[in-house]
Design brief:
Elements: H1 13-29, H2 33-36, H3 38-66, H4 70-77, H5 80-105, H6 107-110, H7 116-126, H8 132-139, H9 143-169, H10 174-197, H11 203-206, H12 208-211, H13 219-236, H14 258-273, H15 275-294, H16 300-320, H17 332-335
Helix pairs in contact: 1-5, 1-10, 3-4, 3-5, 3-9, 5-10, 9-14, 9-15, 10-14, 10-16, 14-15, 14-16
Length: 337
């Protein structure tokens, strides 16, 4: 294994995987916007992931100072290898996100068939004739509970992304950071292609009569769903050249639920590293899984598929990079070079 101090000159798998998939979607879509939107995407995402890194370094430095481990942490992050890896991780996190956005956005043009009825029926078959969406709505039907789910689903996912990327981008060990990035990249891009393989818009769009009466209790969710559907209609106009103001981050896809997948992925990593992080992401996983069904964004099978995808990507990445079990937060300084 290349020393943490030296620059790793060969491409990492997540870099190759991102470039190959970006090239594929450029060829499939054959629309100049896939390339012309790269500068605006990178301008936003490079700054975002860079800020996560800086914020994480500050937090880790403070905790390391309290634990009297600051010199060891600073020695790691001052090396050419760590700095080079950081730039590459941030750059390809932005590139991966851009690739994911475009694959998901183009689903209705590349594969217009919808499998929503089949997913609804599969859910019912798993629950002996009962729809999990209807069942969960019945259990969590109190307006105050629906308000809480509405708010939490809209906010917890973004909070979880922040916590996870702050934690992993600022980690001192090369193997840990590259392993996390490898599995995360595979999870999002494979998930995007699954959107294309099994196109679906989600139960709130396919069966609106179930959710429209709940508009007062699910205001945040339904406002956001309306924005995505408006963008979806503009995507359908792209071949005719009549589309206006298409937002690439507003693609629609239900199977699998990558919101659930990301919580599962982070939870599995935290089990190795940080007991409090494990608890936090365990709660996040439960809240997002339930919220995805209650709000009508997803069928239950979407969440199950997301969990399976996350577990597979985690399992492969953690073993390829030989990350030891039950590392703890600050032991990574010495154990995950």
């Amino acid at each position: 294994m290349t020393s943490q101090r030296r620059v790793h000159r060969r491409p990492y798998f997540f870099e190759i995987f991102t470039i190959v998939n970006l090239a594929i979607i450029v060829v499939l879509v054959a629309h100049p916007m896939v390339l012309t939107t790269i500068p605006s995407t990178f301008a936003s995402l490079f700054l975002t992931f860079g800020a996560y890194t800086v914020g994480g370094v500050v937090v880790r430095a403070i905790v390391a100072a309290v634990r009297r481990e600051l010199p060891a942490y600073l020695r790691k992050i001052r090396t050419a290898g760590w700095i080079s890896d950081t730039i590459r991780l941030v750059f390809f996190a932005a590139a991966m996100t851009h690739t994911y956005f475009w694959i998901k956005l183009m689903v209705p043009l590349l594969n217009p068939k919808l499998y929503d009825q089949a997913l609804w029926d599969l859910d019912q078959a798993m629950f002996f004739g009962f729809s999990p969406n209807i069942l969960f709505l019945g259990v969590f039907s109190a307006p105050s509970v629906l308000h809480a789910i509405d708010w939490s689903y809209a906010n917890i996912f973004f909070a979880s992304m922040t916590v996870a990327f702050v934690f992993f981008l600022s980690a001192p060990g090369r193997r840990l950071r590259i392993a996390f990035a490898t599995g995360n990249t595979c999870m999002w891009i494979i998930g995007a292609w699954l959107y294309l393989l099994v196109p679906s818009v989600g139960p709130a769009y396919r069966f609106p009569d179930v959710w429209m009466p709940l508009a007062a209790s699910l205001e945040i969710t339904q406002n956001f769903q309306a924005l995505l559907m408006k963008n979806y209609r503009q995507v359908l106009l792209m071949p005719s050249g009549q589309s206006k103001n298409v937002l690439i981050m507003f693609g629609i896809g239900a199977f699998p639920s990558l919101h659930v997948a990301f919580q599962m992925y982070a939870f599995l990593w935290m089990r190795r590293l940080w007991i409090y992080g494990q608890i936090v992401f365990g709660v996040f996983l439960l809240v997002i899984l339930i919220g995805s069904v209650v709000t009508g964004w997803h069928y239950l099978i979407d969440g199950i598929a997301g969990i399976a995808l996350a577990a597979g990507c985690y399992w492969v990445a953690s073993r390829v990079w030989r990350i030891p079990e039950w590392l703890r937060l600050w032991r990574v300084v010495n154990s995950a070079r």
